[in-house]
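Researcher: Structure for this, please.
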Amino acid sequence: MKSAKSRLKTLDSRLLKGQVWSLDFFAVSVTMALLLMLFIITWNFLAIRWSNIQSYDELWSASLSATDALVITPGQPVNWEDVQMLNDSNVVTFGLANSRNVIDNNKLSRFADFTQSNYSIVKSKLGLVRYDFFINVTSMGKETSYYQIGSKGSSVNEAVVFERLMLLNGSIVNLRMEVWK
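Model: Predicted structure, token format:
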């Protein structure tokens, strides 16, 4: 026969089957909460990072297009610098080049003057509506600045900068275009 002690042991094990200990439940709950928080924090970090990358790509693409339009094309109409009353409706795009990487001094001068009083129109025509820009045309060694066009940012955290070597009046110059949000 079974002893009283063995019957009690069997009874205890039957009574304890399926019981959840509060300490076990608490440990699992805390672990799951920590894992969920880790997942949410990681997801949030990645979402912000992807958003920043996409924003920078858009800024870079707009900057490249604007720089190329200025230094590769003559603009449209081709003789836009000769238009008496230059405005939003009679210029499709601005371009400074006579030919690829050769800047027309008249176009550059007229562009600088027009930008000074019509910055938002120029931004729109360059495809930079959401951004600001600054163009600095300097000598090759950057000791002499010939033109400074646009809005100079005081403390810009994220900017895209393109520099192009160009010919202006037979001399090699550096055209630096900064674009930022």
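Researcher: Any notable elements?
Model: The radius of gyration is 33 Å. The mean pLDDT is 87.
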